[in-house]
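Thread: quick sanity check before group meeting

JM: Hey all, I'm pulling together slides for Thursday and realized we never actually wrote out the predicted structure for the chain we discussed last week. Dropping the sequence here so it's in one place. If anyone has concerns about the input, flag it before I start.
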Amino acid sequence: RRKEQVGGKCPQKHEGSTVHCESNTFLSAHTQSTIQPMAQSNCTQVTQFSLVGFTEELVTQGNLFLLFLLTYLVTIVGNLGIIILIRASPHLHSPMYYFLGNLAFVDFCFSTIVTPKMLVDLMLEKKSIAYAGCVAQVFLFQLSGITECFLLAAMAYDRYVAICHPLLYPLVMSPKCCFQLVTGSYLMGAIVYTWCVFGGSFCGPKLIDHFFCDVSPVLKLVCSDTHSSEMVIFAFVTINIVGTSVIVAVSYISIICTVLRMCSAQRRARAFHTCTSHLMAVALLYGSAFFMYLQPPSSHRSLDKVASIFYAVVNPMLNPFIYSLRNKEVKGALVMCRRRFLNHWQHKTVLSSRT
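JM (edit): ok, ran it. Output follows.
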């Protein structure tokens, strides 16, 4: 029987390979295919990935660092400011602002998961991330994204009840109901598909063509069959994104029908004004999410980085401005808090001068 030497090496061997097999057994031709999976099972698992980032030009990296640093600072100030303002203003203690406060918290987490690591990588020549860090980043990013989708759906339902059934609003949107909707949003976000991404074998290059660990770029590095994982991920995304977008669409169709039946033009304008901010936030998030995740990973293009910047960095920065600049109640609460702070500061100044 003809013998042939089979080295226990992975199908691809090059610098940056994530798997190293240790076997030099002489096998017969008909048993090679049987033993090969056993040889692969003794492979060393990947410990870290490298990130491509945006560009290798130092001047461009410096400009991007300043731009994203400014964006992140505005995101922190805007979202934490919304949370503090809602907690400090009693007349903002309503279901609408309860959801808005949680949305600001999720946006803050959304940006923090990606931006600090991205800023550090822009200052380094070698951009790398540990395997455990990559898994954590994918998990937390999915958690924040899915939670935000369900929070936006809950906010759409809140607007539907407020406009279409105003007399039932205090009963339907009770504190208990609001707490259940927010808790359910976080629980749905916890049902993620990270195991589908990291469940395969990484036998090829460990270079992620992205500026952070996202589902599609990491899935491209898996050397085993990813068809079933792609189908599971597509199903999860369809249920979460499409399902919540249907809730938003049905809510606003009912709102539009109700508003058009109103006799007073002033009431119609006020009703549409209360929904404009939420619709803008929905359009920004769902537009980029549909572009990124409702397509097979094999068809992803270079524009994915632009879409990722938009929903991971820009959108969390814009949401506080969308909800505050077009909202008279938020602007009124901000003016009252500023007056309260100035009065307190003047009072302390007068007392210190007397002493």
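AS: nice. Residues 3-41 form one domain. Residues 131-164 form the longest helix (34 residues).
JM: adding both to the slides.
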